[in-house]
Amino acid sequence: MTWEIWLIGVLGILCFILGFLVFILNKKSKKLSKENVVHDQTNEEDYRRDFVANVSHELRTPVSIIKGFSETLLEDFENVKEKKRKDFLEKINRNANRLHSLIEDLLLLAQFDGNPNSLKLQTIDLTKTIREVVEECKSRWNPQELNVLLDLPNFEVPITVDPQKMISVFENLLENAFNHAKELSRITIRLKIIEKHTIALCEIEDDGQTTIAPAEIEKLFERFYRVDKSRSRARGGTGLGLSIVKDIIEAHNGQIVAKQSKIGGLIFTFKLPLQAKDS
Q: What stretch of H or E contains 156?
């Protein structure tokens, strides 16, 4: 039956996740041993413990849901009404997608940790890229509930970056606002060219009524860190988006900071050189 094949596929994904986590841990421990010779053993053990605890926590809920509903279908399929079957499969599919998002984010992080020079640099128009990402995101949001304002130059802004990684930066920052900001109604993206036309400065500001303590803001870029855990999980966040953003920006020799906005939300500001050092 089709649903049985589908469930086998989901279980295969779970097996892949477990193997992938072992792979990531091995890469991480090797990286730590090279970079921190003096505190090698302590750092490795601390990292393994924290990483396993965080990932296990993220996996536990979706895996439990998939396991529970799939077992019910396998053991009592004939007695479960058709409407209930569909409801069960939708829940399994939703949580499988959540696992997929986690894997995609972990793959991005592993790529940077294993090879920070893996960027595929090209010269693109940054204003065009921002507009394209916003249009793509709008298709997933209700325009009646969320307005995205663009304050961009009326000319092309050539910049040498990895195009796909730069798309990930804007997607993750927009998704972060959507997933975490309370009472969100507007996101504003600003782009300026500063320092004698050598640096692109970009700001992404939301009007969500979310007050975050300074100590909390400093932790926003840590992996798996969440200010409001229940809200972010309910909206599908993995807790890795901002960490990915920071890794990408720094790989491009840029810097990113976050601060509380005067209108109540958060402002993420990053700077990027228009020309890569190796270009």
A: none
**What is the Cα–Cα distance from 65 to 99, expressed in whole angstroms?**
12
Nearest CA to 243 out of 222, 267, 212 is that of 222
Return d(Cα 156, Cα 124) in angstroms, integer. 9
What is the C-alpha to C-alpha distance for residues 185 and 148, in angstroms, rounded to an integer?
9
Question: What is the torsional sign of CA 126, 164, 28, 236?
Answer: positive
Q: Is residue 217 part of a domain?
A: yes
Q: What confidence tens digit (pLDDT) does each residue in 113-158 have?
A: 656 567 889 999 999 999 999 988 877 777 667 788 999 999 999 9
Cβ-contact 191, 156 below 8 angstroms? no
- Determine the Cα–Cα distance for residues 141 and 137; give it in Å rounded to an integer: 7
7 and 144 fall within a common domain = no
Q: In this structure, are 155 and 232 located in the same domain?
A: yes
Is residue 29 assigned to a domain?
A: yes
Distance separating alpha carbons of residues 181 and 196, to the nearest angstrom: 35
Same domain, residue pair 59 and 94: yes
Residues 130 and 262 placed together within one structural domain of the fold: yes
Total domain count, the chain: 2
Would you say residue 278 lies in a domain?
no
pLDDT in tens, 53-108: 666 666 677 777 788 888 888 788 778 888 888 888 888 887 777 777 677 767 77
